Amino acid sequence: MTKAKQVVRILVADDHAIFRDGLRKLLDGVDDIQIVGEASNGVECVKMLAKLKPDILLLDLRMPEKDGLGVLEEVNFDSLPTRVIVLTAAEDDRDVVRAMRLGARGVVLKQSASDLLVKSIRKVHDGEIWLDNRMTAEVIDAFKKSAESGQRREKPLLSEREKEIVQLVAQGFRNREIGEKLFISEQTVKNHLHNIFDKLGVSDRLELALYAIHHRLIDQA
């Protein structure tokens, strides 16, 4: 028996009705993607997230009442199955970097080709991080600047368990999901991350993922 494709449930949050309509027409033609809701501002977005619990939130950073960064700051995404892809016209790269630090798992430029948006949705849904090529350079540049302000060990002594956790963090998995995969408690994962952060001198999960890739601590996807 052929296994049915899992449908990725999408919530779109953007204040431009024409852009939302275009997204709906694009994604309605994709078999394994379904738009389950649309929000025109950040306040609506927060309410719909709690109600719909979508798999993916396509989030515009520039919205009235509450912007995309405000949504990321307010919502505890660890309690939701939702992963966030930021939609941006790239007015300010600093906002994109901040969005990633607040937990966004992907960044898509609004002027990107439609097939790249569809690909980003599938990749992020599968637990990977998606960055536009130019955005990748910006995020890594911000990471390097922060690296200059702290000391890091060039050859950190990570245990095998810590290396496993670094690999899963870089793939975008949350603490609870990491615990389930490794058959350990969420608190144990947190304890390991505390030790990893201390050993590597990083301050958050994004820095950890970038550091691991830069120093070849993991296989780069």
List the helices and strands and how they pair.
Elements: E1 8-13, H1 17-27, E2 33-39, H2 42-52, E3 56-60, H3 68-74, E4 83-88, H4 93-101, E5 106-109, H5 114-125, E6 130-131, H6 133-148, H7 160-170, H8 175-182, H9 186-200, H10 205-214
Parallel strand pairs: 1-2, 1-3, 3-4, 4-5, 5-6
Describe the structure.
The structure is a single chain. This protein has 221 residues and is α/β, with parallel strands linked by helices. It has 2 domains: 8-143, Response regulator (Rossmann fold, 3-Layer(aba) Sandwich), CATH 3.40.50; 151-214, Winged helix-like DNA-binding domain superfamily/Winged helix DNA-binding domain (Arc Repressor Mutant, subunit A). Helix content is 50%, strand content 14%. It has 10 helices and 6 strands, in the order E-H-E-H-E-H-E-H-E-H-E-H-H-H-H-H. Strands 2-1-3-4-5-6 form a 6-stranded parallel sheet, sandwiched between helices. Helix 7 (160-170) packs across helix 10 and helix 8 crosses helix 9. The protein is globular. The two termini are 31 Å apart.
Return the CATH class of the largest domain: Alpha Beta
| SSE topology string | EHEHEHEHEHEHHHHH
**CATH homology group of the largest domain:** Response regulator
Count of separate structural domains: 2
Amino-to-carboxy terminus distance:
31 Å
Q: What's the number of extended β-strand segments?
A: 6
Low-confidence stretches: 151-155
Please indicate the percent range of residues in DSSP E strands (runs of 2 or more): 5-15%
Q: How is the biggest beta sheet arranged?
A: 6 strands, parallel
Task: Please state the CA-atom Rg, rounded to the nearest Å.
Answer: 18 Å
Give the CATH architecture of the largest domain.
3-Layer(aba) Sandwich
Lateral strand order in the biggest sheet? 2-1-3-4-5-6
Overall form: globular
User: What is the helix content?
Assistant: 40-55%
- Average pLDDT metric: 83
The name CATH uses for the topology of the largest domain is Rossmann fold
Number of helices: 10
